[in-house]
Design goal:
Length: 505
């Protein structure tokens, strides 16, 4: 391998590093073979154990001079320029594994430099915190530690002061809440329980919802023409509260034909709801209505007389003062007569109200219906709960009342051959036949109220006895409407009427 017959390029490939493509030097078996060839020609060159030579099987002598260009004859494996074959170490032959370590050491310094460069690049790109911190933390001086401790102590004192302020504010709020709760408890002890809005709405619904089921049983298979014979004409103004377009009792059979069962049921529901509203849950501001049927007649008349004086007085009475008197008076009467059974006079008055209600709708009832059973159901499920609801509403500090909406005819809006419409007011009414409660835009259609089915629920003031000047609609009145095409408007209409909210009517 090191003889003169060895080609120069072969020697270069074995001695000079050629990068990743350099062929590894063959050793072990190859070296052993060449040694045996040389030892046969020169047996004296083989080391022995007594010569103090090497313990390994490798020959201690260097391979002979190969005669390749640039190799020093005095030191084989070393070029004239001074570069050295990695397998030679001070003239001593080394194995490939040891020479590989020597070669690796040549590149280790370059690898370390490249690693340092990459670390510096990462620090510049991502910041110093992303790179590993190899430096040991600097020891702070006593002066610096004392300064940091002073800053922490000042921050601690500020936080303690802030916590103390929050604790004081919390104590103040708790005391205020306790005082308000004590005042509310004292108020309820004087005025009774003050109901929340949702509770009032639920109790009102419990009175009017059973009317729908009762009406279904009452008009079950009634298709006969309506006979209004014997019905007093004094009912006409009251019927107009339910059917605004009715002019007389003679118009009722035309408005409620036997073929239109839906319209008949809506009228029956509306008529019963109106009588419950007008005669049992009446607004004291209406002088011709009954109120406080849960009281004996003498006390009932006394309260009505005093209340009418306050309402009709020429001198303006403060709203808060009046409602404070009302609440306290009715609360005291409620405590006095709460556990007492209703008087015979109260039961008879309530039965008279129910019979007057049925007088108008009897011609619309089913011939096969058990009227006695229906009357008992109506009395127990509708009229009695209405009296109990009146007892709750009258002792509330907030002024609650139920009322059928007032509708007015839009005179002069349509031509003479059309019935004048009763304008739908979306802020007070809800159309049960339409999912969209907003009034139609100009150019589409105009809603006219056909039948009023249920009253609206209104509230003035609050549970604290304030803001009585503000009236809010808690529940809208339920109505049934019919649409009138705008094209039927009379030509003399100049567009001054606002069709959206009906304010011009």
């Amino acid at each position: 391998m090191f003889g003169k017959n060895t080609h120069y390029h072969q020697e270069q490939s074995r001695y000079l590093p050629q990068g990743a493509e350099r062929r590894q030097y063959e050793h072990h078996g190859d070296e052993e073979m060449r040694y045996e060839e040389r030892s046969r020609g020169r047996p004296e060159a083989r080391p022995n154990s007594s010569s103090g030579g090497y313990r390994s099987a490798r020959p201690p002598i260097l391979p002979p001079y190969s005669g390749r260009i640039g190799e020093s004859a005095r030191r084989p494996g070393t070029s004239i320029g001074g570069s050295r074959d990695p397998r030679y170490n001070n003239g001593i032959w080394t194995s490939f594994s040891q020479s590989a370590k020597s070669v690796g050491s040549l590149f280790s310094s370059n690898s370390d430099n490249r690693r340092d460069d990459r670390r510096d690049n990462r620090r510049e790109q991502y910041g110093a915190q992303s790179a590993p911190q190899s430096d040991a933390p600097r020891n702070l001086s006593i002066k610096e530690l004392m300064h940091d401790n002073q800053i922490l102590q000042e921050s601690k004192m500020k936080l303690e002061g802030h916590i103390q302020k929050l604790d004081s504010e919390c104590i103040r709020l708790n005391n205020r809440v306790e005082a308000m709760q004590s005042a509310r408890d004292a108020q309820e002890s004087r005025l009774g329980r003050q109901e929340q809005d949702d509770s009032i709405k639920e109790q009102v619904a419990n009175v009017f919802q059973p009317i729908k089921k009762w009406t279904t049983n009452f008009c079950r298979d009634a298709s006969q023409p309506v006979d209004m014979t014997g019905i007093s004409s004094s009912f006409t103004p009251l019927i107009k509260k339910v059917i605004p377009s009715i002019l007389s009792l003679e118009d009722l059979p035309v408005f409620l034909p036997g073929s239109n069962m839906k319209r008949r049921k809506m009228f029956v529901r509306g008529w019963i709801a109106f009588n419950v509203t007008f005669r049992v849950l009446s607004d004291p501001r209406q002088s011709d209505s009954e109120s406080d049927l849960w009281l004996p007649k003498m006390q009932r008349d006394a309260v009505k007389s005093l209340e009418s004086i306050f309402i009709s007085s020429d001198e303006e009475i403060d709203q808060s003062s009046y409602h404070e008197w009302r609440t306290l008076t009715l609360a005291l009467l409620d405590k006095r007569f709460h556990s007492c059974p209703w008087t015979q006079d109260t039961m008879e008055t309530l039965d008279d109200i129910m019979q007057t209600t049925l007088e108008v709708i009897r011609p619309l009832g089913s011939p096969t219906a058990d009227m006695a059973e229906l009357e008992g159901t109506l009395f127990e499920n509708v009229f009695v709960p209405a009296v109990e609801l009146s007892q709750v509403l009258r002792r509330q500090r907030a002024y609650w009342y139920v009322q059928f909406p007032h509708v007015m005819a839009a005179k002069g809006l349509l031509s003479d051959e059309h019935t004048q419409p009763y304008i739908f007011k979306p802020d007070q009414m809800a159309d049960i036949d339409s999912s969209d409660e907003e009034a139609d835009e100009r150019g589409q259609c105009l809603k006219s109220v056909d039948i009023i089915i249920l009253p609206g629920l209104y509230k003035c003031g609050d549970n604290d006895g304030e803001r009585y000047e503000i009236e809010s609609v808690v529940e809208k009145a339920q109505v049934s409407c019919e649409d009138i095409e705008v094209e039927t408007l009379c030509e003399r209409h100049d567009g001054s009427v606002d069709l959206k909210d009906g304010s011009g009517f």
